[in-house]
Design brief:
The structure holds three protein chains of three kinds. Chain A is mostly beta strands. Chain A is built from two helices and 14 strands. The longest helix of chain A is centred in the last third of the chain and has 20 residues, at 172-191. Chain B folds into two domains: 4-81, Glutaredoxin; 88-205, Glutathione S-transferase Yfyf (Class Pi), Chain A, domain 2 (Up-down Bundle). The N and C termini of chain B lie far apart (34 Å). The chains are: A mainly beta, B alpha+beta, C alpha+beta. The interface between A and C is medium-sized, with 21 and 25 residues.
Amino acid sequence: MSTKAVGLSRDLPAGRVMPAHVAGQDLAVWRSVSGVLSAWDNRCPHRGMALSHGFVRGEALACLYHGWHFDCDRHCTLIPSHPDLTPPETIQTRAFSALEDGGVIWVALEGEAQPSDDLSGYKPLRTMQFHAPEDAVGTINILADQPVKTLLNPWGESRTLVTTLIAATASIQAMKDATIALETLRQQVEARQ
Amino acid sequence: MAAFTLYDYVLSGNCYKIRLFASLTGLAYDSVAVDFYPGFEHRSEEMLALSPAGTLPIIVAGEQVMAETNDMLVWMAEQSGKGADWYPVATPEDAANMQQALALSSRLTASVGLARLNAMLDWPVDGAAKRAEGLKDLRELRRLDGCKWLVGEGPTVADIACFPYAALSPDSGLDHDGFPSIREWLYQIRSLPGFITMPGIHALHELRG
Amino acid sequence: MSREHALNDWYAVADANSLKRGLATTKLLGEDITVSGSFDAPVVETTDGKRLPTQVKFDHLWTTLGADPRPLFDIPEGDEDGRTRVPCGMVRVKCSPLRAVENFLDIAHFPFVHTDVLGAEPHTEVEPYKVEIRETDDEVWATKVKFFQPQAAKSAGGGITTDYVYRVPAPTTAVPPKHEAQDIITIFVQPRSETECDVWPWMALYDFETPYAELVQFQQLIFLQDRSILENQRPVRLPLDPKMEIPTRADLTSVAYRRWLKKRGALYGASEGPL
């Protein structure tokens, strides 16, 4: 099972959580206030609420439903309905390996995350979700005459997260042109569905 | 001292624009609850006399009766004395961007707004078609890539006009999973001093910790 | 299999407002039905023209798909004079009907989901309360439930500690019973399928001052805040295996509710196996 790109580092500031996806697994990817990155099963063990709707407080991610806090080690540290209780060790979230490289956030469902591509010489352009399966998107090497690298990550059966990087030396205008070309490409791909 | 009377429905995204903007600008107002659903009171004779299109919100300020949400926001910006900040149209670029964003807000109301009413209250519209239009309209918020606000350097009525239906799109099954810029912009608006919630838009608990 | 038990209950499928708008097509337990007429002459039919039994109760039209339905429960306080009765219309939610009821029984979420209305940090503690499955009526009851609330009802002034009593007379209904002069707030859940339902909130209140539209909208506000939670719980079907989702002492009502569902075989909208 491979490591997939789930988003850009700059799209996840400190103290925030975002939804993500790898190989049929919904994820809550979040960054503590001090910057620690985590990728968890998007499900609170209490009543199954999506943790990506939660809120970060310091080094913990709290669930929106009942405010249960979980720290970077996945352990439940606070159950607000019983504020004096030390939550049992067994109450934990399920975590996956995550790392950042080249401005991209990578997650692997099994084993240690390892970037699937060498991104040296490139900088992140943007992510874009196509409403089309991966093979309909195909490989994209060039946008508006600019060489690009795209990392495809299927999101469910009918969507694909496309993370695009552009030459590190590309100008602002080149980046704008490439973005527009990417949107046009998405329109074409989706129209064929 | 109430600046106006608002004919209001708690679940309406358009009515929420007025409630939210009043809170952000410190404008006081009186409120009359209209039984939009399940009573369909907005179609009563009394309401149609104020808003012939049968829409909410409606604002009454002395002799002035307003039934267009964006007109209300502009009026409120001036009334509050903060028009220069909230409705900046001094430069041609700002003026054009303002109009474009306000037009987009109307499209969002028509697409996402109706998709939401269909999903929640079984409103008789083609939900799938409205969702498809809504997706296109959400993607038009791409101007938020690299820009913190829709017009100029700070929050304006353009952001308030587009915010509710962008934020509420998940009510109709249009999630924000593929829109990191929209998520960031929503977070910034929810962080504004004086921000208030509506059902479907939660408070930022991280700010309260 | 999981549908069999559910067939023999009554379900709310319309109110006076929805009937006024003419023929409606809707779904009950996965089956398409049409609803039309009036409270005096209601017509509920399956798509192949079979007439279904109906009754009007609690300002709603009820029907059943079962051949031998259990009697529709009573809410004696609901018939009392001196109350304002408020049907609130319908809200459609993509969730299991059982998750909708369980959320209604829960108070620990008030400070986070109904912030500054039904609860607020730091007043998050849930004191121990009493839960039982009453064998004679075969209902789940929770009593002595207390919670500190900033604005518990439209007519409330400042913050107060509110007493709640919860009663579950049928798998998809939650009602508080007679307890002095207490407001009655209920939900009647119409299961469209195991993963989607139409929720009909209804209230019988001691409030003749607050404008009617405000009473309706207060309830709609609360329920729509819950909807955004309900549509994001996984698995969609309510797990009845207690190892699947971890309860705490504050969850006694939901633990009892889940056990009661399993015991009765009320499995429509539930999942028994692992995730």
